[in-house]
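Annotators were shown the component list below and the corresponding predicted structure, then asked to write short factual statements about the assembly.
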Amino acid sequence: MTRRLLWLLGLLVASSKVTAAQDSLPLATLDRDVAMRLTRIVDSAGSRGLPTEPIVAKISQGVFFHAAPDRIVVAAQSVVARLEEARVALAPKPTQSDIAAGENALGVDGVTKTALQAIRSTSPNRPVAVPLGLLAQLVASKVPLARATKIVTDLIKRGASDPQLLALGNNVSADVVHGAQAMASLDVRLRGLTAVLAPLGSAAAAVDGPQSAASGPGKKP
Amino acid sequence: MRRARLISLVLFALAARAPASAQWSLTGDAGLSHLRQAGIPESNAQTLGATLDAAGERSAFRTSFLAAHAASDRWTSQGLVVGSIVGPTAGVARWQLDGAASAFGETTVATTTSAEVAARARLGSLLRGGALGAGIGANSRGTAHNPLYRAQGDAWWSIDDERLIVNIALTHTRSLFAITPTSPTPSQHISYLDFGANWRHDAGGLSMGVGGGMRGQNESSRTKTNGWGAVDMAAWIRPQLALTLAAGSTLDDAVRGVPHATFASIAVRIAAQPHTTIFSRSATVAGPRIMVARAGELRRIEIRVDGASRVEIMGDFTNWTPVPLEHVEGGWRVERVIPPGPHRVAIRVDGGAWIAPANLPRIDDDLAGPVGIITVP
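Structure shown to annotators:
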């Protein structure tokens, strides 16, 4: 009895979310057939437990930019496909934010499901939205996918915090805009970051020169 | 002595073979130095150095070598190998094993070698924390062999591109400087306390550092002063070429046998890997720049743009609905709930075209065209 009540309550919550998503759909300017198709796409995704906000956002975007109705439908279907792909890649228990972040990352040319899986397996019990953001930014900055994935997973393993990952992505992006090569910038930025993350603490100072600060100061000449 | 060397070698081997994906860098320096060092007449010297760094997930390794050729064909050279291995996180503390080996040689003076191993407990976070530990080792010059004991405490603090490290160490050994032709084995034990601080700024094509400290008891040193200090700077003028400047004074290193010195040097540095240069760093970003930060439960978006009277933003987090920003001192701002992760974003200034913020990587959106991709914390 209790289980049946919980199931009904869950269904109610899920359907209310889908209804809320549908309510926010900007369908007024679309013809009835397209509106119905889009509503079914959102409805179907919501009932499968996928976050509907990215789909609604994509439809809104198409409407805002006056895209052809068929293009909007195709774009919405692509978002659903990426959400599914992200959910599978980030299994077993991805949060809605993780799935949405995975979808956005997969939308960057070059990012693959395998890269998402690598990040999830490195961080199985923590949210991965920010690491996925770093991955997306690095790949969008023309860092090869394999290298970008390796960097993100290595940094996670070394305990890099979300702000550190965020700073790395932003700094590399800014350097690229400044005219630097993405890989050159990455090397420099990683050196700065790994100096902080390096398992050294004071030893980071100790390795600063032929004489450690501890045993006899300074580096000469 | 042999045992300490053996343990050091094992640590280096472990640190060096740690993940193949390790970050590494190799640099070589060549330059001129004005050098005043015990045992060598004050003179200008040609210097040559090399440094190899590697850092893995839980290990780090550095080896460096430096040689100076002074007047009257006098040579001085020193080499150092340092390795560290850190254990996995266990509660608030992690263990760390360090090893170091050094060699110092000077014309007319027997070569000094040393080896040390240390164990520490690391506390705190990666950005700020501390470590406490102790180590043993030995050094030798000629026929003299001395044991070495050390207790050490360290603290580190990092903010953005700045890093501050403070350390204190108590050393107990026999001074190599007590060796004379008539007394080849030093018998006098010495203990001294070193306190040091080091600040480093490392951003883009510019790296600079300032270090200094005091020695509590100066029976280990033959200098009148108990203080030391040094500054250094490297400016990358080409992706693999930097100009370096350094100056300072050091105390006697009773453990490694390196005598006190005063120096000022200039050198060119060649790197195996490319760097961002100071010139690319100083270029200005053309166009509006966007930043996002936490503001409690909300996320604060700030846009900096010159001479605008209206700035709007839209992205997947606004359902691609334009949202006007509020003008504040230094830029434009809006706060809203935004889920963490990557987001697509475009901005519009004074009712113009929707564009990607200048400081973000751009991607081609299937419906909106070029947009920026930003990571929200």
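Statements collected:
1. Residues 110-221 of chain A form one domain.
2. Residues 27 and 35 of chain A are 6 Å apart (CA to CA).
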